[in-house]
Amino acid sequence: MKSPLIFKFGGASVKDADSVKNVSKIIDRFDNRPIVVVVSAMGKTTNAFEEVVNIFAKDEVNKDVKIDSLLSHILDFHLEIIQDLFDQPSEVVHQVEELIQNTRLSTRKDYSNYSEAYDAIVHHGELISTRIIAAYVGLTNKTLWHDTRKLIKTDDQFRRATVLWEDTTRAIQSNIVEDSVHLIQGFIGSTEDGRPTTLGREGSDYTGAVFAYCLDANSLTIWKDVPGMLNGDPKIFRNTTKIDAIPFNEAIELAFFGASIIHPKTIQPLKKKNIPLQIKSFIDSSQPGTTIGGVEHPVPQVANFILKKNQLLLQISTKDLAFIAEHHLSAVYNLFATKGIVVNLMRNTATKAMFCINYDEMIVPEVLSELKTQFELESTSSVELLTIRHYNRSDEAKETEGLEILLEQRTPETVQFVFKRG
Predict the structure, then answer these.
(1) Quick one: pLDDT band at residue 1, thresholds 50, 70, 90?
(2) What is the DSSP pairing of strand 5-9 with strand 143-145?
């Protein structure tokens, strides 16, 4: 089989009927086959399914009624798109209704923990989007829809599953064989015994990298609503600059610090096989975009700005006033790893350890309750984390002016500020 093209389209690129038509036009521009198209849930569907999970996890009166109402809204959103795309949509309507019913059944089951329930419910968003897009692309192309749960095999670390590479490679290579457009769900997989898993929020980029790695692709292209990789989120930072090319290692660093353009795990499998990553605009697909890999230094070389909101600053000290030692930190990190807490910054002194973590309203309170049995805690909610990579003093002064800085950490290349807005 010749090397396939691997494309990934996120939720913003398939948010409505016109967007789906645009995706089909982009696919039509490339006559290479096979082509693997990885697709996220449509628009804000993942957020909607997360709301379903949160209702499911709460012991509320009329829980099932509330869930059914949310699922009806999700169904109506997708049916409206289907009606705008097809003259005779009965088959795809049936497929989507069946997936909504499967979701409803998933909310009637018992799970070992919140994360397993999350994966069992939320992954239906990708199944729905790919059914619709496969049907539409199939009007003009030979198209095959695949259930990614049968292709990407993982461990059972729900919401942050680790890929089992040998099983996954075998499954992908045996299924992606025809000269067709292959529609694949991003973000999802399953355990060896078939339980649905997810690869981490925004994990569809990583799915694309997994397929590129397993199929020895020449490149992976991620289609975004920006002209390429910018040195900051244009919704947050002014006068952003497009980066034309960037080394793998620098992209890994930016992803680690939270750059939203790529999922943190995406780069490693591509780097291992030297597969370049293209970031291009689905709004103007003729533009060159950004290439990750193949250069030693970013072009151009500019500072990068990353802002993470909805953070919690947690300070831990021992109850007996003893120094914070390695075994204390080990216990904390073990709990974080078990519960799926993401640590974005950490600093420790002789008597206390400070962590800036993503605030998950379902998991963090449970973790804090458990930590209180061993440690004294102080926490500050609703803080933000600003990271400036390759900073200079003027950038630093401009971006932190007027902020209440709670914690600062710097290296020669990167400075980070935890702060609270006034």
Answers:
(1) low
(2) unpaired
Q: Output the pLDDT for position 276.
A: 96
Would you state the CATH architecture of domain 304-420? 2-Layer Sandwich (3.30)
Residue recorded with tokens 């008597």: 351
Neighbours of 43 (CB within 10 A): 21
Helix (H) or strand (E) holding 230: strand 229-230
Counting every residue written for the chain, the total comes to: 422
Cα–Cα distance for residue pair 14/60, rounded to 1 Å: 34
Domain ranges of the chain: 5-218, 304-420
The predicted model gives 80-107 an average pLDDT of 97
- Asked if 147 and 137 count as a contact pair (C-beta separation under 8 A), the reply is no
Q: What is the mean pLDDT of the chain?
A: 94
Q: Which two tokens stand for residue 282?
A: 């689905």
Output the six-digit token pair for 15: 């948010």
**DSSP string of 232-244, one letter each residue:** S-TTTSSS--EES
Q: Are 185 and 151 in contact (CB under 8 A)?
A: no
What is the helix (H) or strand (E) element at residue 346, kind and residue range?
Answer: strand 343-348
Report how far Cα 249 is from the mean position of its chain's Cα atoms. Answer: 19
CATH code of domain 5-218:
3.40.1160.10
Q: What is the pLDDT of residue 217?
A: 96
pTM of structure = 0.89
**Average pLDDT score over residue span 249-275:** 89
Residue 281's identity, in one-letter code, is S
The separation between CA 182 and the C-alpha centre of its own chain, rounded to angstroms, equals 21
Closest by Cα among 145, 130, 148, 266 to 210: 266
C-alpha span between 382 and 370 (Å, rounded): 21
Instruction: Determine the Cα–Cα distance for residues 308 and 258; give it in Å rounded to an integer.
Output: 7
Residue among 286, 221, 278 at smallest CA distance from 244? 278
